[in-house]
Amino acid sequence: MGEPPARLPFLIRPCQGEEMKFSLTTAINGESFGPILLRGSPREVLSQAARLGYDGVELHLLRADQVDPVDTQKRMNEHGLTLVTIGTGMAAKVEGLTFADPNPEVRRQAVLRVKEHIPLAAALGSGITIASVMGRLGDDSLQRPRRRAAALSCLAECCNAAASAGITIFLEALNRYESDYLNKLEDTLSVITELETHNLKLLADTFHMNIEEADLSASLHRAGPHLGLVHFVDSNREAPGHGHLDMVRVMKTLKEINYQGFLSFEILPLPNPQQAAEDALSFARRILSILSSPDTRGMG
Ligand code: LER
Ligand code: MN
Questions:
Q1: Counting atoms of ligand 1 from 1, which one is nearest the CA of 208?
Q2: Complete DSSP assignment for 155-173
Q3: Among 30, 50, 103, 269, whose Cα sits 20 to 30 Å from the Cα of 22?
Q4: Is residue 273 lining ligand 1, measured as CB closer than 6 Å?
Q5: Annotated catalytic, 58?
């Protein structure tokens, strides 16, 4: 694992508000899907996350009925854990349900699937992430505006349903290999501005940002108060410190914009889940302690 620099060549503002809260990605047994750190039953992943010192988890589900809300809430309370968000990407990856699909029936099924998560999210006090389910617009330039409008209309329907249950939707910007229209934070911010729904927030994933953004800090500053969740990930999608991204600068920027949400490790379980989870948390905590030390606060 790389070491954060002992001295930092920049001036930072004093630490504002609470220290960061950390979460990691989890999924229920059986589904093989993306950068998930812990897999197992809700009982297993929650107790493991708590043992590793985490404050919260993200839960990726194909369907809402994969978890029992009452039992999961009880275990979360026992462990003092927050369910930060329910990830919906499996519906797109496993079943091809997306909001930008040319077939209205597929779009309807995608919306229904996302809405299925609303009672669960309400019961567990969680948000809902929308990323891959936004789908792709395709190469036909004549069709793209129509498909984008259809996708935004599906998103608006989900946001409205979630708003009445007091739930935040996190809309994620994905790199060009995963989305053909919501790549930069500003693409996602445009959607948030267009829809004008108060419960739609931006999810910034530093793995995707490393591919798409010219300057991560400048983009995060522009996102400012719209930022609801951060996937704090290195360039190779491993734990912060395993790659070559300047995670210190990212953390410094988050403190500058007074980001109060979770830092979530949506990372590959390498070299193994436990090691990756430990490396991520200890590296992030070391960055925080460096940034809050009087030495580094005063450096120009
Ligand atoms: C997909 O690449 C991603 O970053 C996830 O957060 C989607 O749920
Ligand atoms: Mn992500």
A1: 4
A2: HHHHHHHHHHTT-PEEEEP
A3: 30
A4: no
A5: no
Name the residues around ion ligand 2, CB cutoff 5 A. 205, 231, 266
Calculate the alpha carbon distances from 253 to 13, 170, 257 in Å: 10, 20, 6
Cβ of 58 closer than 6 Å to ligand 1, yes or no, is no
Can you give 136-150 as a three-state secondary structure string?
A: CCCCCCCCHHHHHHH
Find the length of the chain.
300
| Torsion from C-alpha of 1, 205, 254, 156, nearest 10 degrees | -160
Q: By the 8 A CB rule, do 52 and 284 touch?
A: no
**266 phi and psi angles, rounded to 5 deg:** -95, 85
Catalytic residue among 44, 105, 172, 256: 172
Q: What is the per-residue pLDDT across 69-119, written as a single tens digit (0 to 9) for each?
A: 999 999 999 999 999 999 999 999 999 999 999 999 999 999 999 999 999
Q: Which residues contact 161 (CB under 8 A, 6 or more apart)?
A: 115, 118
3-state secondary structure 71-101: HHHHHHHHHCCEEEEEECHHHHHHHCCCCCC
Residue matched to tokens 């719209």? 226
- Regarding pTM above 0.90, the answer is yes
Question: What is the crossing angle of helices 144-164 and 185-195, to 10°?
Answer: 60
